[in-house]
Amino acid sequence: xxxxxxxxxxxxxxxxxxxxxxxxxxxxxxxxxxxxxxxxxxxxxxxxxxxxxxxxxxxxxxxxxxxxxxxxxxxxxxxxxxxxxxxxxxxxxxxxxxxxxxxxxxxxxxxxxxxxxxxxxxxxxxxxxxxxxxxxxxxxxxxxxxxxxxxxxxxxxxxxxxxxxxxxxxxxxxxxxxxxxxxxxxxxxxxxxxxxxxxxxxxxxxxxxxxxxxxxxxxxxxxxxxxxxxxxxxxxxxxxxxxxxxxxxxxxxxxxxxxxxxxxxxxxxxxxxxxxxxxxxxxxxxxxxxxxxxxxxxxxxxxxxxxxxxxxxxxxxxxxxxxxxxxxxxxxxxxxxxxxxxxxxxxxxxxxxxxxxxxxxxxxxxxxxxxxxxxxxxxxxxxxxxxxxxxxxxxxxxxxxxxxxxxxxxxxxxxxxxxxxxxxxxxxxxxxxxxxxxxxxxxxxxxxxxxxxxxxxxxxxxxxxxxxxxxxxxxxxxxxxxxxxxxxxxxxxxxxxxxxxxxxxxxxxxxxxxxxxxxxxxxxxxxxxxxxxxxxxxxxxxxxxxxxxxxxxxxxxxxxxxxxxxxxxxxxxxxxxxxxxxxxxxxxxxxxxxxxxxxxxxxxxxxxxxxxxxxxxxxxxxxxxxxxxxxxxxxxxxxxxxxxxxxxxxxxxxxxxxxxx
Length: 661
Description:
By secondary structure, this protein is of the alpha+beta class. The chain is built from 21 helices and 16 strands.
């Protein structure tokens, strides 16, 4: 073999050796050592040696390319793995933490952190970090354009620095620099997190030593940020979608519940309306409502009267009301219930009230109103929890009840007008035709020959229409008559007890009208027995009582004694008064031919002075004492009682007027 062939053979062996070393992933030092050994061990000419050195350069280039490709392959593999991991996470918080952990791992940085955009404040704030050591750093906020992160957010492009604190390209803020210094960060790389045209935040990788980030590392973190932005957006959209689904499910449940409530309400309203259309009354309405609401229902008048009940008892109170309404109406619990009615009337809506200290089922009270006037109250006690639909059903039932009561009132008002017209005719100065009165009484179910107590009631400051309505209801319940005259309520009530009638009218009208009622009641008499005169006396009696400052009193003509004569235009009553006081003494004088009446007149004229009377009559004082004793025995008068003496003196003066020419 010639020398040239030998050189070529040696060069080929070295090239094959370089290829084997490259295939074996040898280092650059191993490649250089192989070439150096070939040059030293074989005598090569200058051209051959230069060729080997060129082969070494190509080998080193190939090795560098292989190393870069393998690094890129690892980065891409890690990036794809990260993207897959991020895509599998559904919770936003977990996504954010995974992003900073992966960024720190991919760039082999000491720390990584994420700042998000606060659109309301117009800045960025620290959201999550990995590898941070101070709390102050995690509380940093950056205005757009401030610091490295603010500049990334403003320009939406990556920025990096090998030493942030001495890099004058950035707008340094003392608080931010202090936080960075306390954290010990030196090199910082930041890339934007964007989805379409929308900026979400900034992703950072940082180290506590100087480091120049390569373009490949910047591109890697930017790719990571793109995947992270999509993952954040997907997690947000998923969260919003789940929230929307929950809200839709809740709305669906609410709609279904509302639909069921509407169906129940419509069914209840139809049933209640059907009861009224079929001619049912309060009892049927209460029974139907109690069945619909699974409880007991009472209809209570503003006067406290139980009008109807239905639905079956829920507790002991209901059982007692159903079993003995009259006894219950006087019980403490019933009065406690009546106290709750005012609250319902005041609000105009359904109110809840507790009875007996809460040991009974709660009561729901709905006022039955017409033009602001309380017609009645619905009182519900349910066996189950009372929901909003039940309250609305109760209030609709109150409206139905109002219509029913107004219908009854319209019918009653026609009858009341007839009753009022009859009473007004009786109260007029001209006496009505007796036969006409009897016919009208028969149509109204009244007995003209029965005895009635005439009552005049005055409610100061009250609307005359309300006064008449209250009086008419009271008279109707008692089988009597009512009318309004000059703002006063005038009632004719069956009975023989004027005192009891006066007190009853005062209490019931006062409770309904919520004001002070002054009442005067006359002695009972038949309808045709000077009803007009009785009315005039009782009206004047009310005026005198008010003049004496006794507003709210309930009096009778008999209770005010002889003052009743001041309001009586009947000569019959005057004669009866004189007769009651003097007849026993007059009869004794006539029978025994004595002078007891003249002695009484002289004694009273002398101011009850015994000596003066004896001198004027020319009799001995003992004789005067004997005559006064006889007068006291006959008339029942006690001369020490000033009221009795005054009445006797008035009777004597009236007799003198009767006998005067």
